[in-house]
Design goal:
Largest sheet: 6 strands, antiparallel
Low-confidence stretches: none
Mean pLDDT: 85
Radius of gyration: 13 Å
Helix content: under 10%
Oligomer: single chain
Strand order of the largest sheet: 4-5-1-2-3-6
Distance between the termini: 27 Å
Order of helices and strands: EEEEEE
Shape: globular
Strand content: 35-45%
């Protein structure tokens, strides 16, 4: 299935989190960031391009199979 986001939405593929060999620190906030690769962007997206790796909130967006559709404002940082 080919999806094309509308407006300021992005389609991203979540990437596996890197393995950690350090001490696990429990965060008080349940929301954590996760790396993702941008697959497609809507026509109103200005700052993010397909193929870029970004950091997004795990709680943002709507899952569609193994992809997530979310707004451009949900991108926290570039990797």
């Amino acid at each position: 299935m080919r999806l094309q986001p509308l407006q300021d939405y992005l389609l991203v593929r979540l990437l596996p989190e890197p393995a950690r060999s350090t001490v696990l620190v429990v965060l008080s906030s349940p929301s954590r960031a996760q790396p993702a690769e941008v697959v497609a962007v809507g026509p109103e997206v200005r700052d993010v391009k397909p193929g870029e790796k970004v950091l997004v909130s795990k709680l943002a967006g709507q899952e569609v199979g193994d992809r997530v559709i979310l707004r451009e404002e949900s991108v926290l940082a570039w990797l």
